[in-house]
Structures are given as C-alpha cells and as structure tokens.
Amino acid sequence: MNVATFFKNKTVGLYSTILGIGAILVVAITIDVRLSYRDRIYSQTDVPSEPIIMVLGASLKPDGQPSDALLDRLKVGSELYNQHKGSSILVTGDDGKFYTDEVSVMKNYLVQAGIPDSSIKVDGHGYRTYESCSRAKKEFSITQAIIVTQNFHLPRALYLCNKLGVQSVGVSADLHSYRDIIRMTLRDWLASFKAWIDVNVWKPKPPV
Questions:
Q1: Where does 65-203 have alpha helices with state H?
Q2: What was the pLDDT predicted at 148?
Q3: pTM of the predicted model, to two decimals?
C-alpha cells in the first residue's frame, strides 16, 4: 500500500466515523425530545385543570372544512372546556397569510359548539408549533396550559411549549385512525430534531 492510498483510506474511515457519531447524536436528541414530557400526557378525565386550553391548528379540507385531525382537536378542546378543565380556549394556527385560514374555521366551530365568544382567544400567527408556543407566552401571557393535538404531535408540542415558558400538559385528540398517520408521524420525528435546534441552538426566524 502506497502513502496516498493509506491516507485516502484513513480519510474515508474518519469521515465514516464522524457521520456515524453524527447520526447517533441526531437519533439521541430526537428520542430525548420525544420522551422528555411523555409523563405529562393525560386522558380527558385525568388531566389537571389549567387556566387555558390550547388547540393547535392543522390543515383544512379543499372545501374549507376542518381536516379529520383538526376536527378531532376541536371536539376534544370543546369537551375539555365543558368539563371545566380550562376557563378559555386559545386556537392557534394559520390566519391565511401563510397558507389557509385555519383559525377562523376553528373559532367558528367552537362558537357553533356552544363555546362563548368571550372564552375564545385567537392567534393567527401560529404558523408552526414553535410560534404557537412562543407567542402563547409572549403575546398572550400564558404560563400554564392544556395542549390538544394528536399523539404523534404531542411530544414535540409539549417539549416546545415547556421549554419556551408555558408549563403544559397534553391531551390526545386521536378520536379515530388517520389516513396519512405514517407520513405525519415520520415528519414529526424529523421535526423533533429541529425543535431541539430551535430551542437550544438558535431561535428560528418567523415564516415569511
């Protein structure tokens, strides 16, 4: 083996080691995000009361109606309110300036479900989970909340909100199975690593 081949092999080996260590770190960080607040997930019956219920936004159907996931979040959020688990509801999501107007549809659903208008707060700039949690603290002075979303999303949402100053517990809105659950779950695992970066490395810029 000549010198050039020797150093080439050493370099390849070094790169492989670095990539391997990097992959292990990414997996470890992702798992940490997913597990950090699992003990704060409750059933509707057992969840402790908090000042406010945060219903996180999700996509709409082409006809403007809530998607299955969003409809389930709204149903659970309204049930928690009627069970006196929170004195008000914050709907947080897109106001239509980023993609579609989720929050207007969310508020309309809650009003039609009998929730008083005075008990509904609206944040139309919660374009991502990070913004929803950050703005809940900064813009609405929320320090404690019940977060309502699906099981695949709850670990990341709880991690972000708790790390950003909103001491939160979560309730699952999985009322039935979802067609794209595998894709949504894989996407949320990837987003969990980014959530760790956003909280611990650098603050993300708000979406344009």
A1: 68-82, 102-112, 129-138, 154-163, 181-200
A2: 98
A3: 0.90
Residue 119 in contact with residue 26, Cβ under 8 Å?
A: no
In the numeric block, which tokens belong to residue 146?
A: 């019940």
pLDDT at 3: 47
Q: CB under 8 Å to 77, separation ≥6 — which residues?
A: 53, 55, 89, 91, 110, 148, 173
**Which single residue is written with the structure tokens 């909280």?**
199
Give dist(CA 193, CA 32) in Å, integer: 9
Instruction: Confirm if 129 and 157 have CB atoms less than 8 A apart.
Output: yes
155-181 pLDDT, tens digit each = 999 999 999 999 999 999 999 899 889
47-57: pLDDT as tens digits: 999 999 999 99
Domain ranges for the chain: 38-200
Cα–Cα distance for residue pair 164/143, rounded to 1 Å? 9
Run of H or E residues at 170: strand 167-172
Write out the two tokens for 11. Answer: 């370099």
At 57 the three-state DSSP class reads: coil
| Number of neighbours of residue 25 by Cβ within 10 angstroms | 11
Region 38-200: CATH code: 3.40.50.620
Q: At what angle do helices 129-138 and 181-200 cross, to 10 degrees?
A: 50
Residues 44 and 79 sit within 8 Å (Cβ to Cβ): yes
With tokens 């490395």, the residue in question is: 201
Confidence of residue 70 (pLDDT cuts 50, 70, 90): very high
The token pair at 129 is 């989970």
3-state SS assignment for residue 96: coil
